[in-house]
Amino acid sequence: MRVFVTGGTGLIGSAVVAELLGNGHTVLALARSDASALVAEAAGAEPLRGGLADLDILRAGVAQADGVIHLAFANDFSSPDALAKAVAEEGAALATLGEELVGSDRPFVTVSGTPWVPGRVSTEADPLPTDGPVGGRGRAVTAVLGLASRGVRSTAVRMPRTVHNHGTGGFAGLLTGIARQTGKSGYPGDGAQRWPAVHALDAAVLFRLALEQASAGTSWHAVADEGDKVRDIATVIGRRLGLPVESVPAETYGPLGPIFATDQPSSSAHTRQALGWEPKQPSLLEDLENIQP
């Protein structure tokens, strides 16, 4: 099928585009800059110039596609206001994409994070949080899933806190960047909190499977590693960078501090059984060995 992909040149998106093209689909990729358009074109996709805020461009993309995969996000965590703006922009984009798909029975695969459930591992049956720093994303994704009653085969692939490839990406990538800036590989609290993870190439396979097979209104977990202790993640980062490893205040991580400090392991048992998804790439701790000093 012809698939309209937003965020198709990022860490996850580039893997998804390659996975789609390698399995007989064609791709129309939203490109917010000339540079991104060139990257999309080089990958074998047809670029469509525009950003998430260009709602008419989003409508045009849907009109040319048999299905939609949404991955784009501003990823500005510099301040609460910046994060809120990114969440609002994405919410408006999702609403626009969804309305254009109503009554078409076309697939609409969106992205979200895995939920956290106090005291246990989260599963695909758990609802997304709708409050807190990124609660708006949970509300927007819930609305997308609600389009199942309006003739949209809408599904959500929930991504863990770290999506990695060759030692970069996700929350672990943020820890690495902050370690380089501060001269110490830090972790909030005692570091016993657990973060789930997945390799970008494995996640890309799940996005394709959801596009091709998933029933309307369903959620799936792209989780390969159920939960690595943040202290263990920081230890590998510190060793690779030759930096001391120690606890730091949650405030070190700005608006993401409360999320960084939360224990949030997650399971993908149902996803593996129902869609036949099986991660094959290196684990997060293995992949972090690729960090260059």
UniProtKB/TrEMBL annotation:
Residues 261-293 are annotated as: Disordered. GO terms for cellular component: cytoplasm. It comes from the Bacteria. Residues 3-217 form the NAD-dependent epimerase/dehydratase domain. CDD domains: SDR_a7 (cd05262). It holds the Pfam family Epimerase. GO terms for molecular function: aldehyde dehydrogenase (NAD+) activity. This is 3-beta hydroxysteroid dehydrogenase. It comes from Streptomyces olivochromogenes. The lineage of its organism: Bacteria, Bacillati, Actinomycetota, Actinomycetes, Kitasatosporales.
